[in-house]
Amino acid sequence: MNRNVELIVSQGRVADRTDGALRGARAASDALGEYLGQTPIVVGSPSPAVTDDWTDALPAAHETLTGLKGALSTALDAERTPVLLTNTCAASLGTLPTVAERYPDAVVLWIDAHGDFNTPETTASGYLGGMVLAAACGLWESGHGAGLDPRQVIVVGGRDIDPAESELLSSSGVRVLAPSEVTAARVAELVSGREVWIHVDWDVLEPGYVPAAYRVPDGLRPHRIADIFAALRDQVRGVELAEFEYGDAEVPSRVSVELILQTFIALNR
User: Fold this and answer.
1) What are the helix (H) ranges across the chain?
2) Kindly report the CA angle at 139 between 135 and 140, in degrees rounded to 5?
3) CATH for 130
4) Interval 123-146 mean pLDDT
């Protein structure tokens, strides 16, 4: 990845069911901004978390999602490499369609404990964040575009996937790497020299490093993410870092912020 980075931070609620992710996105963006010597572009204004259904969360997030799409497009037009610090994975509803348009041959690494490949017909929770990747691949209409080829998507570290969601992933051609299969060499082999867009939901990690709202045991260690970043840095066209839950009682937030920064540095050397 080149050093011509554009930091973009999401500060508008996008289906947030907890209050920590907006604060986490801001804290991480501030740390990266200090490291890079730049002021992040802020999209949206915070509002309280609500446990709502996707049918309510989606229209409520329209302004923020549109703003993220605009900020991403502006960065790409300026030939800058976007690094987005987002509150929830659902924020990618506003970014992935643009990625698909600008980089149609790119591999999307969805580094996440979840597949996020449910649809309105399969979701049991009604959570918008669990449906974002399926929307970007055109399995349902979000109103924010699609165009992503599921055969170019790799879910890295996926281990908490619903049965119906698993069937959709398989039938659509999405490859899923369980944590035991994840090495930088294996990921690089699958990417095979192509351009890459990377999305990281910090719940992919073993709990205890970077807190996320949804904790899933048996995850990756942080060095695995850094190793992947380092192996692919020349191919990366953009990064999204999502779901850092600031204010966790067990893990000091300053420690998690430092870990996020050190992981990013592996990409930006």
Assistant:
1) 20-36, 54-60, 62-77, 96-102, 132-136, 163-172, 184-191, 222-232, 253-268
2) 65
3) 3.40.800.10
4) 98
Question: Into how many domains does the chain fold?
Answer: 1
Three-state secondary-structure class, residue 151: helix
Indicate if the pLDDT at residue 184 is higher than 90. Answer: yes
Query: Which tokens go with 199?
Result: 């999305």
Mean pLDDT of 175-184: 98
Q: What is the pLDDT of residue 39?
A: 97
The per-residue pLDDT for 3 is 67
What's the rounded mean pLDDT across residues 80-105?
98
In the prediction, which pLDDT does 268 show?
A: 84
Domain containing residue 84: 5-268
**In Å, how far from its chain's centre is CA 103?**
17
SS percent in the chain: helix, strand, coil, step 5: 45, 15, 40
Q: In what order do the strands lie in the sheet with 41-43?
A: 41-43, 5-10, 81-86, 236-242, 196-201, 107-111, 153-156, 175-177
Positions of E strands within 120-222: 153-156, 175-177, 196-201
* Confidence category of residue 148, pLDDT binned at 50, 70, 90: very high
Q: Which amino acid is at 214?
A: Y
In single-letter form, the type of residue at position 77 comes to D
